[in-house]
Design a protein that fits this description.
The structure is a single chain. By secondary structure, the chain is α+β, with helices and mostly antiparallel strands. It has 3 domains: 2-38 and 228-307, Outer membrane lipoprotein wza fold like (Roll); 69-131, wza like domain (wza like fold), CATH 3.30.1950.10; 136-221, Outer membrane lipoprotein wza fold like, CATH 3.10.560. Helix content is 26%, strand content 22%. It has a 5-stranded mixed sheet with strand order 7-6-10-8-9, covered by helices on one side. A 5-stranded mixed sheet has the order 12-11-15-13-14, with helices on one face. Strands 2-1-5 form a 3-stranded antiparallel sheet, covered by helices on one side. Strand 8 (178-181) and strand 9 (188-190) form a beta hairpin. Helix 1 (2-25) packs antiparallel against helix 7. It holds the Pfam family SLBB_2. Residues 234-279 form the Soluble ligand binding domain. Residues 138-215 form the SLBB domain.
């Protein structure tokens, strides 16, 4: 009889371990998604070599600035060719000739000035100058965007492309009233919604150096926005499809983050999800606004605990079967 009871206890322990392994699969902090979900904090790099253009650059409209690269060919007693970048102060330094400030000039005028300067040193030389690559710079984008800050763009980047660099508009962004503050010029208000609907390039302008883009929030959602520079992610664990760390988005609710984590698994209890803030469980519903560093836990459904795989009912049934088997053996 002692051996039978030892077998019963061993089987019970095995069933308990099996259930613990199932629970560990969902809802433990060490068991997260292999990759961070949704949006990565690392900024995208906008490659411009070779440049991707909408159309041929018009030398009567393009404005030269620091970072533009020129090819300079001087055919005098011997042929000389240089790739030269416009410096941070706007000067183009030509070997054997000197420097000339061409920043802020339209392309055709800048090339004329450079040719005249080279002719002073190399008289009667054939001179060819061409813009061979366009510059990059940073513009500041603030407000209702997913990763506000500075976006690295090229001299021909439009507003929609710049917003893509910082991971797009916030869900509550008012895309019809985007303000562009422009140095030395009047501020302009554009509508990306109108650009999408009509294709109006006036609502999707090419950005300039020094521009500040401000995207407002929709007025009715503005009160629930918690803007912060904190980079602490929101941790979603429990019985969800992709548990792990998700970047913080101002104004997103508990159910939004559960959705970003792939949704509730088949055995999770969506309605019983709760928040842990500063180490304490918070009374919250699915519409509660989440803050940086919050933890969201989705528990297992009661139905699965009672009737699912390795459930309490299965454990009791197995234990009862062993007891009945033992009693049957003893009665013989």
């Amino acid at each position: 009889m002692k051996e039978i009871w030892q077998i019963i206890i061993a089987i019970s322990i095995m069933l308990g371990i099996a259930r613990a392994q199932i629970e560990n699969q969902f809802g433990r902090f060490e068991n997260r998604a292999k990759e961070k979900t949704v949006i990565e904090l690392a900024p995208k790099k906008l490659e411009i070599i070779p440049p991707v253009l909408e159309q041929v650059i018009d030398p009567n409209e393009y404005v030269v600035g620091p970072g533009d690269i020129f090819g300079v060919n001087i055919d005098a007693m011997e042929n000389m060719y240089y790739n030269i970048t416009v410096g941070p102060t706007g000067d183009l330094l030509i070997p054997g000739v000197g420097s000339e400030n061409i920043s802020g000039l339209i392309l055709i005028k800048g090339i004329d000035i450079l040719k005249h300067r080279i002719n002073e040193t190399f008289q009667n030389a054939r001179i060819d100058i061409s813009l061979i690559n366009i510059r990059t710079f940073k513009v500041q984008i603030i407000g209702a965007v997913n990763n506000p800050g500075f976006a690295k763009i090229s001299a021909l980047t439009r507003l929609d492309e710049a917003i893509d660099v910082i991971e797009g508009l916030h869900r509550y962004a008012d895309e019809k009233k985007i303000l562009i503050k422009r140095t030395g010029e009047n501020n302009i208000i554009v509508s990306l919604a109108n650009y999408i609907n009509t294709g109006s390039l006036n609502d999707n302008p090419i950005l300039k150096e020094g521009d500040i883009v401000s995207v407002p929030y929709i007025e009715e959602n503005k009160q629930q926005i918690y803007d912060t520079f904190k980079k602490m992610p929101v941790i979603v664990t429990g019985f969800v499809m992709e548990p792990g760390a998700i970047n913080f988005f101002p104004g997103y609710s508990l159910q939004d983050y559960i959705g970003l984590a792939g949704g509730v698994s088949e055995i999770g209890n969506y309605s019983k999800a709760y928040l842990i803030r500063s180490g304490k469980k918070q009374a919250a519903d699915l519409e509660s606004i989440v803050l940086p560093g919050d933890q969201i836990f989705v528990p297992e459904s009661t139905l699965n605990i009672l009737f699912g795989k390795n459930s309490l009912l299965q454990t009791v049934t197995a234990f009862t079967s062993l007891v009945l088997t033992y009693l049957a053996i003893q009665s013989k």
